[in-house]
Design brief:
Residues 1-25 form the signal peptide. With 528 residues, the chain is of the alpha/beta class. It is built from 16 helices and twelve strands. It has a six-stranded mixed β-sheet. The chain has a four-stranded antiparallel β-sheet with strand order 8-9-7-10. A two-stranded antiparallel sheet has the order 6-11. A hairpin with an 8-residue loop joins strand 1 and strand 2 (92-98). It is globular.
Length: 528
C-alpha cells in the first residue's frame, strides 16, 4: 500500500478475539492438498522471484525490468500476455483459460518501490546498496511472486482435474503514487471478471471485509505561472509563481482547522523556481487529499481548487492543475474473505527458525523499534465490528477495483513486526528467508481460494449479492478522473536513466548465487 497495511493493524490489535464463521462452500480437501504441494514445489522459484524483483528496485512507472521479468515467467508458463494495458508501458495482463466456462478470477499485487530507500537486505542497520537509489521500503517485491506461485499451482490442479475457469494476473504499477488502478478500471481491464484477489505484504496472515478504514484520495499538482524579472533590480516587474505556491500552502494549512478530523492532506513543492535572483516564472506544488468517503474526497479536491485559484488571484499569477492519480476507499467482500480466512486457518503461519526470530529482533533493537517476535499464530478475520470504525489514514488504489468487482486483499507474513512503513527498516527482511516463507504461505492461501471460487459457483453468486446489496448500499463509486486525465507515465524516468547503470551491477544473478544475500556477502542472521 501507499502507507501501511490496515488489515494487519486491525488483526493484530484485536488478535485475542475469536470470530465464529458460517460454513462456506469450498473446494475439496484433496484438491487443496494438491495445490499446497504445487506451491511447495515452487519454493526455490519463489525465492528467486522475490530476490530478483528486490534487486531491480524500480519506482512507479519505471518498473521496466520488473514487468518484463514477471510477465516473461507467465508467458513461459502458458499465459497470454498483453503489455502496455491502459496506456501504461509497465502494466500488463497475463491470462490463461481452461475449458469454455467457469469464473474469471483476477489476481494482482503491486510491483513498484520508493525513492531514496535503497537498502541492503539481511542487515539491521541502514545501509544503501546504491546511495540515493530507490528501494523496496514497503516490500512490493514480494506480492507478484506470491500471486504467480499461486496461479501456477492453481493452473496445475485445474488442468489435472479438468476444472473450468480463467486466471488473469496483473501488476499494480505506481501504487506508491496511487496512480494507475483507476485508469485500469476506466480502460475496462476488469470487465468480465467474476472475483478478484489482491495481496499486500504484512507481518500477519490475514484478510477482512467491509469498509476497511482506508481513505480515498486524489493526487493533484498545481502549477502557477507568473512573470520573471530581476529579483533585486526590478522586482516590481515580476509576479512570483513561488509566492502563489507559498500562499496556497499557508491558506491550506489555515483551512485544516475547519476540515473533518478524518481527512489527511499533505504536499511537497515540486518546482520552486530556477535561482534566487530571478523572480520564479513557474512553480508547482503536489497535494494528496484524503478522506473516508467519495463525497468527502470530492469536497477536499474542490476546496483545494478554490484555494489555488485564490492564491493565484492574490499574487497576480495563473494556475493550472493536473490530476496525477486517484484511489477509492477500500471495501472488502465478505463471502470471499470468509472463504480465504478458512484457508488462512488451514495454512497457518510459517515455521520460523531461530535465525528468523533473531534477525527480526536485531532489526527492531538496532532501529529503536518496539520488540516483538515474528508471529506464530493466525489472528482473527478482520470485520467491521472488530475494527470498530477505525480510520487508518492510509490509502491503496485497489479500492477502485473493489468498487468494480468483488475483491479481497490477503495480507501475507513476509515482513517484521513494527518496522516503519516507507522506510529502510521495511526493506531489511524483504530478500531474506522471512520474506520467502511469508510469500509461500500467502501463495497457498491464494491458490486454495482460487480453487474455492473455481469449483463452487455459489461462492461467486454470494460475492456478487454482497457486492450489490451490501457494499452498494453504503456508497457509490465516484472517481474524480476527467476524460483528459491520463497516467503520468513520464514520472521517475530521468531519475532511473541516471541511476540504473549504477544499480545494474547489483542485480541478482541466480545462476551464480543461491540467494541475493549470498551474492551481497551477507551473513544471515549475523551475530548479536
Amino acid at each position: 500500500m501507499s502507507d501501511t497495511n490496515p488489515l494487519l493493524v486491525a488483526a493484530l490489535a484485536l488478535g485475542a478475539l475469536a470470530v465464529p464463521l458460517p460454513a462456506q462452500a469450498e473446494a475439496s480437501p484433496e484438491l487443496k492438498a494438491e495445490v499446497i504441494a504445487a506451491v511447495e514445489a515452487q519454493r526455490k522459484d519463489i525465492q528467486v522471484m522475490v530476490d530478483t524483483v528486490f534487486a531491480f528496485a524500480e519506482p512507479g512507472f519505471q518498473e521496466v525490468r520488473t514487468s518484463e521479468y514477471l510477465s516473461g515467467i507467465l508467458e513461459e508458463n502458458g499465459f497470454t500476455v498483453e503489455r502496455g494495458v491502459a496506456g501504461i508501458p509497465t502494466a500488463f495482463t497475463a491470462t490463461w483459460t481452461h475449458g469454455s466456462g467457469g469464473p474469471k478470477i483476477a489476481l494482482g499485487s503491486d510491483i513498484d518501490d520508493l525513492l531514496g530507500l535503497s537498502q541492503m537486505p539481511g542487515v539491521p542497520d541502514i545501509r544503501p546498496i546504491v546511495e540515493g537509489a530507490p528501494g523496496h521500503g514497503e516490500g512490493h517485491n514480494s506480492g507478484m511472486p506470491m500471486m504467480i506461485a499461486a496461479a501456477l499451482a492453481a493452473k496445475q490442479v485445474m488442468e489435472a482435474h479438468d476444472i473450468d475457469g480463467t486466471l488473469m494476473l496483473w501488476p499494480g504499477v505506481a501504487e506508491e503514487l496511487l496512480a494507475t488502478k483507476a485508469y485500469y478500471v476506466r480502460a475496462g481491464m476488469f470487465d468480465g471478471v467474476d472475483a478478484s484477489i489482491f495481496s499486500h505484504v504484512s507481518n500477519a496472515l490475514t484478510t477482512g471485509y467491509g469498509n476497511l478504514g482506508l481513505n480515498g484520495m486524489i493526487s493533484v499538482e498545481y502549477t502557477f505561472h507568473g512573470k520573471p524579472a530581476h529579483s533585486a533590480g526590478m522586482p516590481w516587474d515580476g509576479r512570483s509563481a513561488l509566492d502563489a505556491v507559498t500562499a496556497m500552502d499557508v491558506m491550506w494549512n489555515m483551512r485544516r482547522e475547519h476540515l473533518p478530523v478524518t481527512q489527511r492532506s499533505h504536499s511537497i513543492v515540486t518546482n520552486g523556481g530556477n535561482q534566487p535572483n530571478i523572480v520564479p516564472e513557474t512553480a508547482s506544488a503536489w497535494y494528496f487529499f484524503r478522506d473516508n468517503t467519495f463525497a468527502n474526497v470530492r469536497t477536499l479536491y474542490e476546496t483545494g481548487n478554490t484555494i489555488a485559484d485564490a492564491a493565484a488571484l492574490g499574487t497576480g499569477t495563473t494556475v493550472a492543475r493536473r490530476v496525477r492519480g486517484y484511489a477509492a476507499p477500500n471495501f472488502g467482500n465478505k463471502p470471499l474473505a470468509e472463504a480465504a480466512y478458512a484457508n488462512i486457518e488451514a495454512v497457518g503461519m510459517p515455521a520460523w527458525t531461530e535465525a528468523d526470530q533473531t534477525f527480526a529482533r536485531r532489526v527492531q533493537e538496532a532501529n529503536e523499534l518496539r520488540v516483538a517476535p515474528l508471529s506464530t499464530e493466525v489472528g482473527p478475520l478482520s470485520t467491521p465490528e472488530l475494527r470498530g470504525g477505525r480510520n487508518f489514514g492510509a490509502s491503496d488504489d485497489i479500492g477502485d477495483v473493489m468498487w468494480t468487482v468483488p475483491t479481497i486483499t490477503i495480507g501475507y507474513p513476509a515482513n517484521i513486526p513494527n518496522v516503519i512503513g516507507h522506510h529502510q527498516t521495511a526493506a531489511m527482511a524483504m530478500a531474506t528467508p522471512i520474506a520467502h516463507k511469508g510469500v509461500e504461505a500467502g501463495a497457498k492461501v491464494a491458490a486454495m481460494t482460487v480453487l474455492d471460487i473455481a469449483t463452487t459457483p455459489e461462492l461467486v453468486t454470494d460475492a456478487w449479492t454482497y457486492f450489490n446489496e451490501v457494499q452498494a448500499a453504503e456508497d457509490t463509486y465516484d472517481p474524480l478522473l476527467a476524460p483528459e486525465d491520463m497516467p503520468t507515465i513520464e514520472m521517475n524516468k530521468k531519475l532511473m536513466d541516471e541511476l540504473r547503470p549504477e544499480m545494474e551491477p547489483y542485480y541478482y544473478d541466480p545462476s551464480r548465487f543461491d540467494s541475493y544475500l549470498e551474492q551481497l556477502g551477507v551473513d544471515y542472521p549475523g551475530s548479536d
